[in-house]
Structures are given as structure tokens and as C-alpha cells.
Design brief:
- This protein has a two-stranded antiparallel sheet.
- The relative contact order is 0.07.
- The mean pLDDT is 79.
- It is mainly alpha-helical.
- β1 and β2 form a beta hairpin.
- It has a domain of 52 residues.
- It is elongated.
- The protein has 5 helices and 2 strands, in the order ααααββα.
Length: 141
């Protein structure tokens, strides 16, 4: 009836056995092992300073500068700083208020130009500046 949203038969039997052995809660057991040392407030501030200084740095370059492993650095960038990885470069997920205001002003200027000159959009030239890399399997280039 519930499909994939319910526990499997094996999980039910395992939980039944644990509750029979006097377990009283359904939460996860505490994990053993060493705590994370990469995600400290000092490291978060250090990474934030580097990213604000040059957003074009790759995760590998930031990792080498801060001496933090890439997995820990990825957690800091995603969870604490609210960034995401686009083409191996770090960009903010959310626009700053200044960026939002700039976009609103640009749109307002475009609308005003369109109202003043009905042929305004006929004067706009668009082009694609993307680079496309080609791979030839025969020459392996």
C-alpha cells in the first residue's frame, strides 16, 4: 500500500529485535569515530574571505590554499556559505540585494526605452559566446 515509503521487512525485524532488547527510542545510534575538524568557524571565515576575494577559484585551488580536504570544503561552501559549484567555479546561490537592485534598474531602463521607442527591440543584437570543445576519438584530441 505504501510502496517505497515504508520500512522493508528486514528493517522491521531488526527494529523489533532492538526494541525487544529494551531499546526505547527510534532515533539513530551515535556514530563512533573522529569528529570533523574541517568545519570550524575559523575555517569557514577563512574560506569565505578567499571566495569573496576571487570567486573564480576552483575547489581544488581553495583546498590547497586553506589546507582543507575537498569534501570538507564542499560542505563549508554549500552549507555555511550558501554557494554552489558551477563549472568548477564557486558562485552564490542567492543574489545579494545590490545585484537584485541592479537587475530591477536594468529591466526598468529597458521597459522605459521600449515605451519611448517602439522599434527599440529591433536594434538589439544577440550572440552566443560559448566555447565548445570537440573531441576526436580517432586522434584522441
Amino acid at each position: 500500500m505504501y510502496g517505497d515509503q515504508c520500512l522493508s521487512r528486514t528493517q522491521v525485524f531488526q527494529l523489533f529485535k532492538k526494541f525487544k532488547e529494551s531499546r526505547e527510542y527510534v532515533g539513530d545510534d551515535p556514530k563512533s569515530g573522529r569528529p570533523s575538524t574541517a568545519k570550524t568557524q575559523e575555517n569557514v571565515e577563512k574560506v569565505a574571505t578567499i571566495v569573496r576575494g576571487d570567486r573564480r577559484l576552483s575547489i581544488r585551488a581553495i583546498s590547497e590554499l586553506t589546507n582543507i580536504n575537498k569534501e570538507g570544503l564542499g560542505l563549508i561552501l554549500h552549507d555555511d556559505l550558501g554557494t554552489k559549484n558551477v563549472c568548477a567555479k564557486v558562485v552564490p546561490k542567492i543574489l545579494t540585494p545590490e545585484q537584485k537592485e541592479h537587475r530591477v534598474n536594468c529591466c526598468a531602463d529597458t521597459l522605459e526605452n521600449n515605451e519611448n521607442d517602439p522599434d527599440f527591440f529591433l536594434n538589439i543584437i544577440t550572440c552566443d559566446e560559448s566555447w565548445i570543445f570537440q573531441y576526436d576519438p580517432e586522434t584522441k584530441r
